[in-house]
Design a protein that fits this description.
Layout lengths: L4 E3 L15 E3 L4 E10 L12 H18 L7 E9 L3 H14 L7 E7 L9 E10 L4
Parallel strand pairs: 4-5
Antiparallel strand pairs: 1-2, 3-6, 4-6
Length: 139
Amino acid sequence: MSEIQYRNPEGLFDPTPFAFSHSTTTSGNGHYVFISGQSGGEGSGHVLSEDFRLQVKTALQNLITVLKASDLTTDDVLKITILVVGHDQEKLRIWTEEMYKVWKNNQFPASTLIPVPRLALDGMLIEVDAIAFKSLQIR
């Protein structure tokens, strides 16, 4: 795991109740992993529920699966971008609750949420992409 610094400068609002940090940074020997947008589609059949919360949970689980394939965890994520169809305060509340369940240490990545009219496939309600950093251990 890389040493990520989380910065929430004084003079700006505290973003942690909304499950993000104003900035994150890391340095050292390693490489970045850019993760394509993960939807709320379940399994190889990409089955989409009509339930927003279920799509959020699935999108986050799909993100974890992709991270795991590079020997990473959510602790290695520096930045996420969230695209939400029909964004409103209820969807923001659901997103935030689910982020707290995944980022249990409350050290959240930098984040941008973008309301959109639609996504790539009919029925997709959310898509989450990420940038992570994989630290290389020097032996």
